[in-house]
Design a protein that fits this description.
Elements lengths: L1 H25 L5 H22 L7 H20 L7
Helix pairs in contact: 2-3
């Protein structure tokens, strides 16, 4: 029962994110030039953070330090690989 409640919460959370993105797109809140930047942030910053968060393990100081170093490395590497859009 506890697992099904957790699953329902995660599905609801995902649905809210999708609906928020849909509304933002339909209202043109983000200009066309900013969409590539947002996509890069999601791909290189948010996605790795979500993967690490999904591990659902108890954190010790040793594990926490490893994940912190790995996420910081991923974050900085994403900005060094970021290229200006060609027009």
């Amino acid at each position: 029962m506890e697992l099904s409640i957790l699953l329902a919460e995660q599905i609801f959370s995902l649905l809210l994110m999708v609906l928020t993105g849909y509304v933002v797109r339909k209202l043109n809140v983000v200009p066309k030039s900013g969409r590539k930047v947002l996509a890069s942030i999601v791909l290189y910053v948010s996605a790795p953070c979500i993967v690490f968060d999904s591990f659902q393990i108890e954190y010790s100081s040793e594990k926490s330090s490893f994940f912190h170093d790995l996420s910081c490395n991923s974050f900085f590497q994403s900005f060094t690989n970021f290229r200006k859009p060609s027009n």
